[in-house]
TrEMBL record, chain A:
Coiled-coil region(s): none
Protein name per the record: Copper-binding protein MbnP-like domain-containing protein
Domain Copper-binding protein MbnP-like: 28-226
Keywords: Signal
Domain of life (superkingdom): Bacteria
InterPro entries noted in UniProt: MbnP-like_dom
Extent of the signal sequence: 1-19
TrEMBL record, chain B:
Post-translational modification: Binds 2 heme groups per subunit.
GO CC annotations, alphabetized: periplasmic space
Intracellular or extracellular location(s): Periplasm
One MF annotation (Gene Ontology) recorded for this entry: electron transfer activity
Classification lineage: Bacteria, Pseudomonadati, Bacteroidota, Flavobacteriia, Flavobacteriales
Major subcellular location class: periplasm
Descriptive protein name: Cytochrome c peroxidase
């Protein structure tokens, strides 16, 4: 009897010691997506009026804005990474899904970089996603298939001072549309948010400066590039280039 | 002490008697929707309200009610009169005639794949949430069935069959408008169309002609038809985005559509994108039935677009009147669109 008691005591002590030494804190992370035009907050209440002016000088409106983010990666300084499952179609038009909490937990601690992908990388873009099909988010097979990265639609005042529609749709750049499309370069964007220390239930407040899509390095003239941009690989590459500075990390609340 | 023991024993007995007492809750025979393969493979699950599961008895009752003129004010008009099966459950007339000979102001909408209307906004302007609530509208609309629910319930309650059918479907023979709407909604959810020639093509069961294939390419090509942005693709078997668009029908609006529902001028002239399934049976087209033929519809998008403050930016080449399709592409686009018609659906 004494022997059994002693054994139980040892086991209990050992288990407590283990739980204290190997304690791993897991926490949820949330990503909020906010939008501005060169610093002025933009919501869907600002849509449908010609209240924005891009870097070229086009007076323009926004009527629809949806974009996809995926592959959120937490990277440690030792190179170890945690890739969060899932993706999120941010729908600014309907003021929906502006906040995204991945189902995967992350461990608390210091991270040398946190990143996400604007759109899908090429591998993820080959999968079939029922929710994105339901949202009519597809890219036609003749353009390589997969999914849109962004749909930004609206109107602008053209050279004739008439309102005209534009469809700034970002996809994987494609040449030779048809049965065997080719891809000149990748146009999904890995957005690096920089180092962060996660303590508990971190909320990342991400900002998209919509004006940047039209600004640097390519000053976008909507009179020249407005519609039918999906099969225009040069326009897609310009969107990719301008998209490099669109997103920023405003703050982390925890 | 004995008194206390007696009370405790009584309490135990009471509890046990409660636990064992059967609670009668009627459950009709479950009848889950038969979800087509192309749907389950490509789009998210349908909407079935938790308080109105599909049952054999409920569906059968809903079907009987749908075809029964008893719901109308003078017992002359059934739901099926304006939603005829041979027309994919719509009306071949531009505007449907109510029981008093009055005409509506919008074209009757076809009824199929309604359980996949994810945002549950029904009618051309989305004014009603949920299929169950949709049922309430035409019955009491003065220009349609011009009835009232008190009379409808009374007629059904005094009917020789209905009380028993409601008892079988819902466990009560006390009929009310909610149960009527639930039964009809259950039936309407079974109206699933998923066996068109194009469905069979996607399943590898048949081939398309070169013209039909070219028509599909015109549909998907942003430099040609660019239909896919609003009407989906081979990855979305519903062939609609269920969203509201101003597709350039008018410079000025006599019918505000969504704008009249939301009160937002930015929504004026917007109407729900209809599914492109079953176009062979659903003429005339558009919310006001203005186009008698598919050729008229294709010509509209090709060269008939009209500008307005709320016209959708997805309408291409607006200043030229539209996407300027060649005659061959128009003919092929029409051939493709007709492959979305499901002849099995209208014959069942």
């Amino acid at each position: 009897m004494k022997r059994i008691s002693l054994l139980l005591l040892i086991l209990l002590t050992l288990s407590l010691a283990c739980s204290n030494n190997d304690k791993v804190d897991l926490t949820n992370v949330t990503f909020n997506f906010n939008h501005n035009w060169d610093g002025t907050k933009v919501t869907n209440a600002d849509f449908n009026t010609l209240k924005f002016t891009n870097a070229y000088g086009n007076q323009m409106s926004i009527e629809r804005l949806r974009y996809l983010i995926s592959r959120i990666v937490f990277q440690k300084s030792n190179g170890k990474t945690i890739v969060l499952e899932g993706y999120n179609l941010v729908d600014v038009t309907n003021n929906e899904t502006l906040s995204f909490m991945p189902s995967t937990f992350v461990t608390t601690g210091e991270y040398s970089n946190i990143s996400f992908t604007f759109g899908f990388n090429n591998e993820a873009n080959t999968n079939n996603y029922a929710d994105l099909n339901t949202a009519s988010w597809n890219v036609p097979d003749m353009l390589g298939g997969g999914y849109h990265y962004m749909q930004l639609d609206g109107k602008f005042l053209n050279d004739a001072n008439e309102e005209q529609g534009y469809n700034y749709h970002a996809i994987r750049a494609v040449d030779t549309p048809g049965e065997t499309p080719s891809f000149p370069q990748d146009t999904f964007i890995v957005v690096n948010l920089g180092p962060t220390t996660i303590t508990d239930n971190a909320t990342f407040n991400i900002e998209m400066n919509i004006a940047e899509w039209f600004k640097t390095p390519n000053t976008w003239n909507l009179n020249e590039l407005n519609q039918t941009l999906m099969p225009n690989s040069a326009a897609q590459i310009m969107m990719y280039e301008n998209g490099q500075n669109v997103f920023s990390l405003e703050s982390v609340n925890q | 002490m004995n008194k206390w023991l007696y009370h405790i024993a009584l309490a135990f007995l009471f509890c046990f008697s409660c636990e064992n007492e059967p609670v009668e809750q009627y459950v009709a025979t479950p009848s889950p929707l038969q979800i087509p393969k192309l749907f389950s493979d490509n789009i998210i699950a349908p909407i079935i309200p938790i308080n109105n599961p599909q049952t054999q008895e409920g569906i059968a009752l809903g079907k009987k009610l749908f075809f029964d003129p008893i719901l109308s004010g003078n017992n002359t008009q059934a739901c099926a009169d304006c939603h005829a099966p041979e027309n994919a459950f719509t009306d071949s007339a531009k505007f449907s005639e109510g029981i008093n000979g009055n005409l509506g102001t919008r074209n009757s909408m076809p009824l199929f794949n309604l359980a996949w209307n994810y945002d549950e906004k029904f009618f051309w302007d989305g004014n009603t949430f949920s299929l169950e609530h949709q049922v309430f509208v035409p019955v009491s609309d003065p220009t349609e069935m011009n009835s009232n629910w008190k009379d409808v319930v009374l007629k059904l309650q005094q009917h020789s069959e209905y009380p028993n059918l409601f008892k079988n479907a819902f466990g009560t023979n006390n009929i009310d408008s909610t149960l009527i709407s639930k039964a009809i909604a259950q039936f309407e959810r079974t109206l699933i169309s998923a066996n068109s020639k194009f469905d069979q093509y996607l399943l590898g069961e048949t081939k398309l002609t070169p013209n039909e294939l070219n028509g599909f390419n015109v549909f998907m090509d942003e430099t040609k038809g660019d239909c896919f942005h609003c009407h989906g693709s081979d990855k979305n078997p519903l062939w609609t985005d269920h969203a509201f668009h101003n597709n350039g029908l008018d410079n000025a609006f006599t019918d505000l559509g969504l704008g009249a529902v939301t009160g937002d001028p930015a929504d004026n002239g917007k109407f729900k994108s209809p599914s492109l399934r079953n176009l062979a049976f659903t003429a005339p087209y558009m919310h006001d039935g203005r186009f008698a033929t598919l050729d008229d519809v294709i010509n509209h998008y090709s060269q008939g677009l009209k500008n307005s403050a709320t016209v959708d930016p997805l309408m291409k080449k607006l200043n030229q009147g539209g996407v300027q399709l060649s005659d061959n592409d128009k003919a092929d686009l029409k051939a493709f669109l007709l492959t979305l018609s499901d002849y099995e659906f209208i014959s069942n």
